[in-house]
Each structure stands twice: as C-alpha cells, then as structure tokens.
C-alpha cells in the first residue's frame, strides 16, 4: 500500500511538471496527458518548423481545449500574433497581443522578438495604446 501511495505522489508531480517551460525544455511535455498542452506544444513546434497554418490550428485548439496556466495561454496568443503578423493580418495580430495583455498585464516580448520588423512595431503599438488607457502597468 505504501508503494502505491508513493507511485501516486510521483506520478502527480511528473504530470504537474509537464506543463512548465522547464519541463518542455527537458522533454517531460511528451508525458503530458492533457490535450490542450499537447496542442500548444505541437503548435509551437510547427511554428518553429515554418508550418504556420497547421501551427495556427493547433494553437487555437489549445486555447479552445482550455489551457491550465496563464503562461501557456499567453504563449498561445503570442505565437498566434506572430503568425497573423507574418501573414499580413495586422488586425488579428493586434487582437492576439491584446488578449495576451488581458491575461498578463506585464506581458513582454524578449529582445529578439521585440526587434522583429513584422510584429515588434505592432506589439509596441498595442502596448502603448493599453498603457495610455491605463489598462496595463508600465
């Protein structure tokens, strides 16, 4: 009986760890049982492979299935914004950045992302607009 309790505890820890960025870096995400997290991971991988249409479908599916953590939701919206900007769909790109800010007022792109010529200016514009309206923190 003690063995089974230990097994349950270890399994719970591993499953919980599968949702974090560090666990994805290590590869534990392959163990994630939730379809939403699997769709997010597939969407990011497909985006990185240049398969933007399929990545978009996976990222949207991840959101529709109900991602657990806000950081995952923000990530899905960020990658959707990148896809829309890369596809010359600026309005949708702006909408996705706004959705990310609605979830996390301190949402920021990293230096390489913010410097990108397609989505960097759109991100900066959305952020400035939300700052001027007092909807996000400086």
What do these coordinates show?
With 138 residues, the protein is mostly helical. It has two domains: 1-32; 34-132, Serine Threonine Protein Phosphatase 5, Tetratricopeptide repeat. The protein is built from eight helices and no strands. α3 (35-48) runs parallel beside α5 (70-86) and α5 (70-86) packs antiparallel against α6 (90-103). It starts with a helix and ends in a 6-residue tail after the last helix.
Any idea of the CATH class of the largest domain? Mainly Alpha
Task: Give the class from helix and strand content and strand pairing.
Answer: mainly alpha
**Total number of strands:** 0
Biggest sheet features:
none
CATH superfamily of the largest domain: Tetratricopeptide repeat domain
Gross morphology is globular
Distance between the termini: 53 Å
Given as residue ranges, the uncertain stretches (5+ residues, pLDDT < 50) are 2-19
Helix-strand sequence: HHHHHHHH
CATH architectural designation of the largest domain: Alpha Horseshoe
Radius of gyration: 17 Å
| DSSP summary: helix tally | 8
Tally of individual domains: 2
User: DSSP strand (E) fraction?
Assistant: under 5%
Mean model confidence by pLDDT: 85
Share in helix? over 70%
